[in-house]
Amino acid sequence: MNLPGSPFLARDAAGTLTLEGHALAGLAHEFATPLYVYSRQAMRAAVTAYQQALAGRPHLVCYAMKANSSLAVLQTFAEAGCGFDIVSAGELQRVLAAGGSADQVVFSGVGKTRAEMRLALEAGVRCFNVESEAELDVLSEVATAMGKTAPISLRVNPDVDAKTHPYISTGLKGNKFGISHEHALAVYQHAARLPGIAVHGIDCHIGSQITEISPYLDALDRVLDLVEAIEAAGIPVHHLDLGGGLGITYTDEQPPTADALIGALLAKIDARGHGHREILMEPGRSLVGNAGVLLTEVLYLKPGEHKNFCIVDAAMNDMARPAMYEAWMGIVPCRQRGEAAQTWDVVGPVCESGDWLGRDRALAVQPGDTLAMLSAGAYGMTMASNYNSRPRAAEVMVDGAQVTLIRARETVESLFAGERLIDGHSRL
Ligand SMILES: *Cc1c(COP(=O)(O)O)cnc(C)c1O
User: Fold this and answer.
1) What kind of fold does domain 108-283 have according to CATH?
2) Catalytic residue chosen out of the listed positions 62, 204, 334, 351
3) Which amino acid positions bind pyridoxal 5'-phosphate, per UniProt (predicted)?
């Protein structure tokens, strides 16, 4: 059978699915389901590929932590020498709690509040990726009031089609992200005049799950055109932040490797005479997606006239990608059965018809079996909710012989810990 994704995921001769050699059915038994399991070696290997491709020139790989922000995951990337791309003050606090340093953090996002700006300035983040002129003015005001100068790059919208799902495409004119190519020079000139702002670089991020190099090269050409215009106007631009977005294999996608992507980007950067600039990148999904699986137990089989349903104990609240983006993710048994496969829709217990994990899957399953959803390391746990008062799953990290419960299963009591009943006499 074809197992997309991580080289650390394998099926042994006895038909047992393993991650770094650990039988996944055994981990499900030990820690219960739904359960996320990640390979630390897979994360390290993914980031090393980026770092090696950029070796020999000033660079910083900033892990876009919204893909998976569990503290032990952040710790893994901090130890590997990564910076972080954050989109909220909460993410900054996570970086600091995991042992990361603020001076390697870039702060993206279209809606930073004043309070978030203050926190980030206090901590000393490396750069704000500013997404509008209005945000620039507020940031200057907040920084000036604190007696500080905010380092910025402008996130420009190069108006290129990343050829991905509309919900995860961010570099087209109609998107809420970034500053349009036409306005970018004027906004840089405005930035250079503001008292609380210091221009450090330029930034773009065109989308997610991108499986071709050409949209990146188109965006890069547009960005370099701008850099030349901005510097001609007397404003130095030190770093190029080329964003994230590199896709992974969920089924039969064949995205370029980080090495191939970066090789092509650097070739263009050098050819256009920009080889001296520091390069920042913000990969998220490609560092963690194929490092993780979501384990779930089969509760009931419900064969029907039109559809057969395989009802499992994980649901859209644990893994939102299928319901939200109609994403296809591999679903395989952790122990293979000899019986013939039947076609099943794999669905969760949540009271929504949109609560499905996979449709029309050929599986030989019985109640009590453990299934693994593959490539679940990115945008899985971070998008989990408590819908239907379901506590969020536990998370385990394997690293060679070491197995660590990195997040305990949430308790129901913790779900309503902050809630209050209304005083019975309050209406009198
Ligand atoms: C989400 C995001 C990323 C990472 O995207 P991936 O597709 O996960 O690599 C990078 N930069 C910004 C600004 C983002 O919002």
Assistant:
1) TIM Barrel (3.20.20)
2) 351
3) 245, 282-285, 379
